[in-house]
């Protein structure tokens, strides 16, 4: 960071040499400076007061006085209403043009989201088909009131449905009397409660805790698990899986099951139909992607819906169930709209404890996935997204849909992107989609009876493959950037999900991310500063040391430091997490001159050589009481060793200064005299805070001058005593 003046190079008033030595990396230790001090009569750019040089750089900038009344700190009720109920921000400006765009987008979304919702419910979550349809139908209405992202489309998600499916498998295998509808009700209620409470407590910052590598690793592992689970239905091995001895709950064990029993026990007609539909869908997707590069209309082609309509017709006409033994959805509970569920009924309360972990995993995963989608849409369309409001919206809609038994619902980036591309203007596109789903539930459920189960599994396989499409690009990116930490998180999450469970993958991945964050938070980032020779710029020599090893030695040789004085920069808040590490790093700097040196190395310095320590606290934005206590121990230790401590550029923050004073830190540091405001003021006031580094270094130079003068007086006194003694002897 540049300095407008060269500190530590001071002359006394009589024009003598500086009493504080400097040491250049290209010169011998102890060489005294012959450079005139530039501090006198000049203001530093590091000072809290503006300098004339700064003003000269910006001569054409206009300025105005900061008026506190200009900032509206207490908005009115009508200003707050659109913030907490975002629907009031778009309803007054809704037009027929927006209505048309939202209607077209809603119809397009419903055409391919209805088959996906059925696939997630039956093939992934292992619940009633209505659970997926209700989730897709009701949640957009609630999100239209509380949601703040106009193009966001909410509904059941593949990864979330997989977590639900594993919970259903686990409970149903131990107790077949438990209703899958009750499991769906309780899981959705638990996840909605977590999200709603987190939103009220303003825990939206949690969206920044987990890295994108973790989310990508989990989504990729979910894609693999979806493909494995779907393959069991595509080969019609699901009944054999339930009847076989042993537990095949983990994805890895299911792969071993397919390899062991699949070649001899697969159902040939089901496998042929599944393979044919899979090839057709993949070909259509490839053709659609190529056409979308030149035209817009292919996005409105619902290839999945067309395939399902054709298979429904063939299933009803050819009687695939009885003629070929191909399983169909068949009859299912259609009384969902006639009665609502009570998530807190006596039987459901008993399910809360075994489902609490899965519910929390659903809430966290759904929130992170929705946050990723909202941030992506927000950056693409220049929207201000509030994670706390999104938490409230997600929690509210899941609490509402839980009374109908719907699957947990969250925002998805893929369908939201298609929604925006289809011409959607507001959240009403989701409302139109939900209305179409409700009409389907009311009048078209009889046709769903004929859908082959393997076709929905094929749709699940297509979705799983789409989740893996971005993995190679992400891996190449992190390899190219040498992001081995992100690659480790990715690998750990994938392996834990495949070899154990989705919940374990989330827990281990989140735990690894949190440990990484704690590691970075507890690591002190203090820097010992050195000056570039013949300039007024101070830099961190560790950076130059690294460059010198890469054949940039000439740059490093131009640095110079000053004997007996450590200029320590603290560019971060001090808390109990990083201040303890500050002590160790200060000790390492005194011994080795660098915080990057290994503790086992042989230090070329001694602590006795340190006479002054200057803390530059310009980057200090906060200090807690634990950090103040450790800081007190540091400065007291320096005081005990006879080392003078200086505090410069301490922020004008009442909390920071009050904590430094109340903890007693300021009692052990050097003081500076404050300029008198009145000519008649006789008493000089002192402050422990130096306004600039230059001011502190001037004080250090004065201390050196005083010390040298006293040493000279002592030598003269000793010489006089020796002369008197010799004369007496004579």
UniProtKB/TrEMBL annotation:
<feature type="domain" description="STAS">
    <location>
        <begin position="555"/>
        <end position="700"/>
    </location>
</feature>
<dbReference type="GO" id="GO:0008271">
    <property type="term" value="F:secondary active sulfate transmembrane transporter activity"/>
</dbReference>
<dbReference type="InterPro" id="IPR036513">
    <property type="entry name" value="STAS_dom_sf"/>
</dbReference>
<feature type="compositionally biased region" description="Low complexity">
    <location>
        <begin position="43"/>
        <end position="54"/>
    </location>
</feature>
<feature type="transmembrane region" description="Helical">
    <location>
        <begin position="178"/>
        <end position="201"/>
    </location>
</feature>
<keyword id="KW-1133">Transmembrane helix</keyword>
<dbReference type="InterPro" id="IPR018045">
    <property type="entry name" value="S04_transporter_CS"/>
</dbReference>
<feature type="transmembrane region" description="Helical">
    <location>
        <begin position="391"/>
        <end position="414"/>
    </location>
</feature>
<dbReference type="GO" id="GO:0016020">
    <property type="term" value="C:membrane"/>
</dbReference>
<feature type="transmembrane region" description="Helical">
    <location>
        <begin position="103"/>
        <end position="121"/>
    </location>
</feature>
<feature type="region of interest" description="Disordered">
    <location>
        <begin position="1"/>
        <end position="58"/>
    </location>
</feature>
<protein>
    <recommendedName>
        <fullName>STAS domain-containing protein</fullName>
    </recommendedName>
</protein>
<dbReference type="InterPro" id="IPR011547">
    <property type="entry name" value="SLC26A/SulP_dom"/>
</dbReference>
<feature type="transmembrane region" description="Helical">
    <location>
        <begin position="420"/>
        <end position="440"/>
    </location>
</feature>
<feature type="transmembrane region" description="Helical">
    <location>
        <begin position="133"/>
        <end position="153"/>
    </location>
</feature>
<dbReference type="InterPro" id="IPR001902">
    <property type="entry name" value="SLC26A/SulP_fam"/>
</dbReference>
<keyword id="KW-0812">Transmembrane</keyword>
<feature type="transmembrane region" description="Helical">
    <location>
        <begin position="488"/>
        <end position="518"/>
    </location>
</feature>
<feature type="transmembrane region" description="Helical">
    <location>
        <begin position="213"/>
        <end position="232"/>
    </location>
</feature>
<keyword id="KW-0472">Membrane</keyword>
<dbReference type="Pfam" id="PF01740">
    <property type="entry name" value="STAS"/>
</dbReference>
<feature type="transmembrane region" description="Helical">
    <location>
        <begin position="447"/>
        <end position="468"/>
    </location>
</feature>
<feature type="transmembrane region" description="Helical">
    <location>
        <begin position="270"/>
        <end position="287"/>
    </location>
</feature>
<feature type="transmembrane region" description="Helical">
    <location>
        <begin position="299"/>
        <end position="318"/>
    </location>
</feature>
<dbReference type="Pfam" id="PF00916">
    <property type="entry name" value="Sulfate_transp"/>
</dbReference>
<dbReference type="InterPro" id="IPR002645">
    <property type="entry name" value="STAS_dom"/>
</dbReference>
